[in-house]
Write a structure and sequence with these properties.
2 domains, Ammonium transporter fold, about 600 residues, about 5% strand, 8 strands, 20 helices, Alpha-Beta Plaits, four-stranded antiparallel beta sheet, alpha+beta
Length: about 600
């Protein structure tokens, strides 16, 4: 008997710790989603906020938050247990597992707000918010839901892994924060119509989404906090059965939501929206989190499908009706679907809450309105708690240290203004080392070369100079589609133009690019990739170059390109010193 008990303890602790590690990994997922869905100039700031959410939250949750949430206390709030001294001494070593598991959940709730308030929030103010939500706001509502003495728990409220306790709390805080903060500069036109501000990397956003989907198996699955039970000397694997069901329902809801969001945006926007579909995956995961242990696979698929519709409607409602600027869709994902998933559990619950016999049934399975009503009451109560407290918190921050950065800081970017980095991406940074500053002995520094000796100067005759006076030098700049570049290059070479400068550029013409939508909002100006070919001619007739380019590039469709013609005052060949017409001519080596 003792051996079985110790074995089950060990396995249960291991299972829960693995889940805690996966939930911690969700911080990386949130950081990637938020970074990808915002502009590159704020990437470092996003990363720093996600890092500090977890770090600050860990410290203050250890200091006081865990005690408020987990101690017996009363129905509204737990007792004071500073630094978790009482909890550890009373419960023994197993409580360490509870501490780390609840800590990573607390940090997840806090980090949801980062994306909704991205690109215009003062870093110091955000740190204050992060401290307060982990210190008292999340722990108190968590006590109501997950503590046996909590008033919602006593009423039978069910939130298995945190649709309300974690996600809706974070989503409600994001709603309040983004509203008080105000939209980013340029988000709305003078008539209040939203403008799209696309994120800089869908690749990062997708990576974050897949990380979150993967880690969610720990978020939901490990919320069983056990794999075995020992009852009357018999080892039971019922918790493992529940965990396997949770894996299936979690995955089904996410996949169902993703498919529905893709189809819905395809119909609504005429194209399947990538970023919104990624949000759809997360919406399905959030919605199923409350009832993943109690619903059937069919119920999970239906809940996911509803979440897939709600994310599109929710994002557009927040953006277009409420006029709240949420760059990553955090409010739609976490607030809307956190609430919806908890309420839908009251409709679709079928299995028991941790027991063999069915103790609660959803309304659709003959359970009556009681359980459904309790789920609705819990959602409304938690929303009221978070909205009121976070309104006070954000308004106090705004009136004291300030909540928003200046217009200059927002335009330049928070990376340089808040953190002193010009870019979070090394490939975008110039790597310049002055010769006198180099300390690497392996770097070979070439000696300076006297330009008079390095360049063999060729004296230009007066005859050549006279020729310059007679021959006009012209620069022709050709903008064309990338697919036409090789044809254009060969055509120019065939008429004697051998010197060209080629650049990959972004731009649009008077049509401002093809009309596109990003998260349901039209993009005012779409910059399309083009190739810019610059040639300077004197000997080859300008008219011939233009005609050749036109014949090569013409398709008869919008976007064929443009040709710009400029007068050139002079040309100097650095190697020989030749100028004007002679500088453009090849020489026999």
């Amino acid at each position: 008997m003792e051996n079985l008990t110790q074995l089950s303890y060990g396995v249960n602790i291991l299972w829960t710790l693995i889940g805690a590690a996966l939930v911690f990994f969700m911080q990386a997922g949130f950081a990637m989603v938020e970074t990808g869905f915002t502009r590159a100039k704020n990437a470092g700031n996003i990363i720093m906020k996600n890092l500090m959410d977890f770090s600050i939250g860990t410290v203050v949750f250890w200091f006081i938050g865990f005690g408020i949430m987990q101690s017996a206390g009363n129905g509204f709030i737990g007792g004071m247990d500073l630094f978790i001294n009482k909890g550890l001494s009373e419960s023994g070593y197993t409580d360490f597992t509870t501490v780390i598991f609840q800590t990573v959940f607390c940090a997840t709730s806090a980090t949801i707000v980062s994306g909704a308030m991205a690109e215009r929030t003062k870093f110091s103010s955000y740190c204050v918010y992060s401290l307060i939500i982990s210190l008292i706001i999340y722990p108190i509502s968590g006590h109501w839901i997950w503590n046996a003495n909590g008033w919602l728990a006593k009423m039978g409220f069910h939130d298995f892994a945190g649709s309300t306790a974690v996600h809706m709390v974070g989503g409600a805080a994001a709603l309040v924060g983004a509203k008080i903060l105000g939209p980013r500069i340029g988000k709305y036109d003078k008539n209040g119509n939203p403008r799209a501000i696309p994120g800089h990397s869908l690749t990062l956003g997708a990576l974050g989404c897949f990380i979150l989907w993967f880690a969610w198996f720990g978020f939901n699955g490990a919320s069983t906090v056990a794999m075995f039970n020992v009852e009357d000397g018999i080892l039971s694997a019922f918790p493992a059965v529940v965990a396997s069901r949770v894996f299936v329902t979690t995955n089904l809801a996410a996949a169902s939501a993703t498919v529905v969001t893709m189809l819905f945006t395809w119909i609504k926007y005429k194209k399947p929206d990538v970023s919104m579909t990624l949000n759809g995956s997360l919406a399905g995961l959030v919605a199923i989190t409350a009832g993943c242990d109690m619903v059937t696979p069919a119920g999970a698929a239906i809940i996911g499908a509803i979440a897939g519709l709600l994310i599109v409607v929710g994002v557009e409602f927040v953006d277009k009706v409420l006029k709240i600027d949420d760059p990553v869709g955090a409010i739609g994902v976490h607030f809307v679907n956190g609430a919806a998933g908890t309420i839908l559990t009251g409709l679709f619950a079928y299995y028991s809450e941790g027991g063999v016999e069915i103790t609660k049934k959803g309304l659709f399975y003959g359970g009556g309105f009681n359980f459904f009503g309790v789920q609705c009451l819990g959602v409304i109560s938690v929303i009221a708690w978070v909205v009121v407290t976070m309104t006070v918190v954000f308004l106090v921050i705004k009136k004291t240290i300030g909540l928003r950065v200046s217009a200059h800081e927002e335009i330049v970017g928070l990376d340089i203004e808040e953190h002193g980095i010009s870019s979070s991406y090394a490939d975008f940074m110039p790597s310049i080392v002055a010769a006198s500053d180099s300390t690497d002995k392996n770097v070979k520094i070439e000696p300076a070369v006297n330009v008079d000796k390095a360049v063999p100067v060729k004296v230009v005759s007066s005859e050549s100079s006279n020729k310059d006076d007679a021959v006009k030098i012209t620069k022709i700049s050709i903008l064309c589609n990338q697919t036409k570049f090789e044809e254009l290059k060969n055509a120019l070479n065939n008429i004697g133009v051998t010197g060209i400068t080629v650049s990959n550029v972004l731009g649009c013409g008077v049509q401002k690019g093809a009309t596109k939508f990003y998260r349901g909002a039209p993009i005012d100006m779409t910059l399309r990739p083009k190739v810019q070919v610059d040639v300077v001619v004197a000997k080859v007739p300008v008219a011939q170059v233009i005609e050749t380019a036109k014949n090569t590039l013409y398709t008869g469709k919008i976007g064929d390109g443009k040709i710009f013609v400029y007068d050139v005052e002079n040309v100097v060949k650095v190697r020989t010193g030749e100028e004007g017409f002679d500088a453009l001519q090849g020489v026999d080596e």
